Amino acid sequence: MKQHLVAWAAAACCTLLAAGAAAQPAMQEQFLLRGVTLNTSAAVRQLNQKLGAVDLRELSSTPGSSIVTVPLAARAAWIEELKQINGASQPTINVTSLLGDYRSLYHRLPGTVPLLGASASRVETLRRQLGNDNVNLVKLAPRSIVREAVTVGFDTRDGFASRGTVSLPLDAVRSVAVTQESHTPTQAGYLWRGRPVDAGASDEAVFVSDGENMTGTVRIGREVFTYMPLGGGVHAVTRQSTADGPPEHPPRFNEKLKNTSNDAPPESTLDVSEAVEIDLLVVFSSKLAAGFADLRQSATIAVDDANKSFADSGILAVSLRSAHMATVPYDEDGPWVSHIDRLTNPQDPVFRSVHQLREQYKADLVVLVVEDTTWCGEAKDINVGPAAGFAVVSRICLLAPRYSFAHELGHLLGARHDRQSDPELTPFRWAHGYVNATKWRTIMSYDVCGGCPRVLRWSNPHLEYAKEPTGSFEYEHDARVWLENARRVSRFR
Question: What is the mean pLDDT of the chain?
């Protein structure tokens, strides 16, 4: 009788449980079973009863799959008898040893786990940029568990207080329980948003999953944790504070802010019944693409972050659409200032194709994402016309805590920084970001508040954030900037 080998992943270090999750029994190991049929379910059930294994839950999103916890003393015998069940039936039951508690979507790996080639290079880059203590390695749970967590959600049966809750490791010690609030299908998987249990006003989580990888960020207080794939299910988790990162803009852009004219006066404010969509072309430098595998997922989150900021800031008539994403053969061989200059030149031999793509996909605005961490970002100008609808953003500032993707798009529409760092009143007097003392600041504001977090809001005196105003009618009304300029920009192509 032919024996079918049972495949499982080697166990690694245990995952600490999130707040609210029930403790895993001591001296137990959890396994994911897949491919159990009506013909084999009785045999598996009898085996579990015989060796003291417990079927914790079935995965409703993947019929024939379940989570089983097995006493370590019975592990070898349990696996051997599963081989016998497999040998007597078809199809084969697959069993994967989980690296920790099944309710955690990632499981911690030792910092010494061997990485090869590009993965090792990525980790070295991250540790050089952020420090060794701020970069940890984890492995994504198997696809069927991720699918269950995202589409169905774990609940009270799994030891959580709320439905749709998962556990995520933050660093080498801490974990957090996150309750999902929404999930949206994407071309390759799902984008989901949630909030940490006992979250503060600015705490949030957002992830894009395609089954093999899951890119995202978790923000807790003044800390932001970013999850990025390295290959083979291994991900790096990086930690930044809201005050970390490169400076916002090169000095020459601040000079542009001082010399802004009002060549493109605002149009009438969009009616709430209108729907204006601005199409984006997002391109990545080849230098960046060689080092990081999650660029499209990160850009998808950046666009969704911006759209969420519109919805939460009363800019209901405006949305962004990703018309196309591509990599360009740009090795970033020059200084930062050359990025935007070359990007906007339709005759540049590297970026000529970007201008062709812009025409092909009718993209109103173009964003180039680079590896260069000299600055966070730079728009071609403020309050631009069609020929200047370009911006550059550093990968490290693309998402939280900087949200530089949305920030640079704001400049293209005519939005300015906070009045303390940017007192000019052109092109629109009301176009400034808002800073609430030392508590938080809106998307366009500089850090003039001692590291207070930038929140996903545009200044708007009509709305509050954490029960406090987010702007003033005279100076801080970036929502108005979008509502008065989005229609014009949406007609660039």
Answer: 89
Q: Give the pLDDT confidence score for residue 66 in this predicted structure.
A: 95
3-state secondary structure labels for all residues of the chain: CCCCCCCCCCCCCCCCCCCCCCCCCCCEEEEEEECCCHHHHHHHHHHHHHHCCEEEEECCCCCCCEEEEEEHHHHHHHHHHHHHHHHCCCCCCEEEECCCCCCECEEECCCCCCCCHHHHHHHHHHHHHHCHHHEEEEEECCHHHHHHHHHHCCCHHHCCCCCCEEEEECCCCCEEEEEEEEEEECCCCEEEEEEECCCCCCCEEEEEECCCCEEEEEEECCEEEEEEEEECCEEEEEEEECCCCCCCCCHHHHHHHHCCCCCCCCCCCCCCCCCEEEEEEEEEEHHHHHHCCCHHHHHHHHHHHHHHHHHHCCCCCEEEEEEEEEEECCCCCCCHHHHHHHHCCCCCCCCHHHHHHHHHCCCCEEEEEECCCCCCEEECCCCCCHHHCEEEEEHHHCCCCCCHHHHHHHHHHCCCCCCCCCCCCCCCCCECCCEECCCEECCCCCCCCCCCCECCCCCEEEEEECCEEECECCCECHHHHHHHHHHHHCCCC
Report residue 133 as tokens.
């203590």
Is 292 in contact with 250 (CB distance < 8 Å)? no
Distance CA 291, CA 273 (A): 44
CA distance 237 to 172: 10
Pairing assessment for the beta strands 468-470 and 54-58 based on DSSP bridges: unpaired
The whole model's pTM is what? 0.89
Task: Convert the pLDDT of each residue in 454-490 to its tens digit.
Answer: 999 999 999 999 999 999 999 999 999 999 999 999 9
205-234 tens-digit pLDDT: 999 998 789 999 999 999 999 999 988 899
